[in-house]
Amino acid sequence: MKKFSFSLQKMYDYKKQILEAEKNSLMALRREKNGYEKRIEDLDLLNDQIREKSKEEVARGTTASKLMFYSMQMDGIKREQTQLRYQINLMDMKIEKQRRKVVALSQDVSGLEKLRDSQREEYNHMAAKENEAAIEEFLSFKLTAE
Question: Which alpha helices (DSSP H) does 61-145 contain, by range?
Fold first, then answer.
């Protein structure tokens, strides 16, 4: 009997390759979102440092222009954080869309794997029957030869 070969192997390989590429794309989107979140955290720390510096300056006595400078820095930080939160929301939408694509491709690949497994099982069953028939033929030939 000839060796087992899955008739849709090329399609399976192609879909598996596409699935891996889409998974990598999903991971890249998640990394980008994590970068935005990390930047927000960094800006929070910077804002706290500026606020503390401003309080120290007020306690020591400072000029209005220095206080205005600190205020403008904190406003800039808030604006950047707002823009980053907007980017995070966009990334969440992209991630969800990509996640759905990955799930659909995973289901396709899984379906092809099940089909391959069932074809292999059928092949193994047929091979076992063929071997059984060959053994019976050999035994019957052996008995008739004696």
Answer: 64-145
